[in-house]
């Protein structure tokens, strides 16, 4: 199984932290990204070994989840109306407007705005 890995630089630790988000508490440290990557691979193996020994349920890697790109959202009537009005102002479909607004919100959050 291949678990996703995230690596980021920590000013506080003056090095790279690697985490396996699917495995609670599974993390590693390295002075370089490469070292952190090697360390997290070892940490994942150890995490899985301990989970098996202790009978802890092992989550499937999120990288195996298939996304359809389709979501159903229920909202208040007033929000629905406001979204339709904004979409009409922009001259786009409601679906297009919502996807664009969500995309902008996610990009801003990732960029730290």
Structure summarized in a few sentences:
This protein is 48% helix and 12% strand. The protein has helices spanning 33-54, 77-90, 94-111, and strands at residues 6-10, 15-19, 27-30.
Characterization of the model:
- It is a single chain.
- The chain is α+β, with helices and mostly antiparallel strands and 113 residues long.
- It folds into two domains: 6-62, Double Stranded RNA Binding Domain; 67-111, Arc Repressor Mutant (Orthogonal Bundle).
- Helix content is 48%, strand content 12%.
- Strands 1-2-3 form a three-stranded antiparallel beta sheet, covered by helices on one side.
- α2 crosses α3.
Topology:
Blueprint: E1 6-10, E2 15-19, E3 27-30, H1 33-54, H2 77-90, H3 94-111
Helix pairs in contact: 2-3
| Assigned CATH class of the largest domain | Alpha Beta
Q: What is the architecture of the largest domain at the second tier of CATH? A: 2-Layer Sandwich
Structural class of the helices, strands and pairings?
A: alpha+beta
* Number of strand segments: 3
Looking at the structure, what is the overall shape?
A: elongated
Using only C-alpha atoms, the radius of gyration works out to: 21 Å
Number of domains: 2
List the secondary-structure elements in sequence, H or E. EEEHHH
From the N-terminal CA to the C-terminal CA, the straight-line distance is 35 Å
Q: What's the story with the biggest beta sheet?
A: 3 strands, antiparallel
Mean pLDDT: 91
How many helix segments?
3
- CATH topology value of the largest domain: Double Stranded RNA Binding Domain
């Amino acid at each position: 199984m291949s678990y996703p890995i995230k690596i980021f630089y920590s000013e506080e630790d003056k090095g790279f932290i690697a985490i396996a988000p699917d495995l609670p508490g599974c993390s590693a440290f390295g002075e370089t990204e490469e070292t952190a990557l090697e360390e997290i691979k070892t940490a994942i193996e150890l995490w899985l070994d301990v989970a098996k020994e202790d009978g802890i349920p092992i989550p499937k890697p999120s990288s195996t989840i298939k996304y359809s790109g389709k979501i159903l959202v229920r909202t208040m009537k007033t929000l629905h109306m406001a979204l339709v009005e904004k979409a009409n102002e922009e001259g786009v479909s409601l679906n297009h407007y919502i996807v664009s607004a969500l995309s902008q919100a996610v990009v801003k959050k990732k960029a730290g705005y």
